Amino acid sequence: MQKITRTPLNEGGAPFHRRAQGAAKPRRRFSVSARSYHRQMAKGTVKAELANAAPSNALHRDVVEPASQVLRRFRLVFNTVKTHFQQVEKKTGIGGAQLWALSIIHAQPGLRMNDLATSMDVHPSTASNLVRALVERELVVANKQGSDRRTVQITILPAGELILRKAPGPLAGVLPKALASLDAKTLARLDADLAKLITALNADERGANIPLGQ
To answer: Cβ-count burial of 142 within 10 angstroms (0-12 exposed, 13-18 middle, 19+ buried)?
Structure first.
């Protein structure tokens, strides 16, 4: 009697073919169009992320770069003033604020302490400290006048005049001279802009009465 061999069927009724032992499992392949689609999607995602990041980076540059430019200008101003004061002290042995006070006393013999403070736009106590330093160096003399002996008049001495002849100009300092050369409109705009900066710094207003060369 002939032996009948049955071929196993899968769930759909189609013949089930066994994979030979040791044979590699067939790899799942994507069509060229499918791979291209995924690559394009990935590129689109990256482009979208870069596009979203670009505005924030550009905004950061727009804020940082102007601030850095202004900061460089402040450095230039401060270093110019600092260099001038160093030259003054090297040639005269006194500070920039003392030289400025000395030049005012020279221009107005018998100047009173309060008038000196007004001329320098400083507190009277600051002017008094400057004069005390000049008196100790024997560059000026301060004499009390009036019936109550409260009014102090200041006069320059020959040693003080010698200092003025040796000192590099301008005697009031490079910054006051530069500011005096600007027109009223520029000064008003500068004053308004600096007021905003001072507010941002939360600066102590008392510092406005202290000379830079103190």
So the answer is: middle
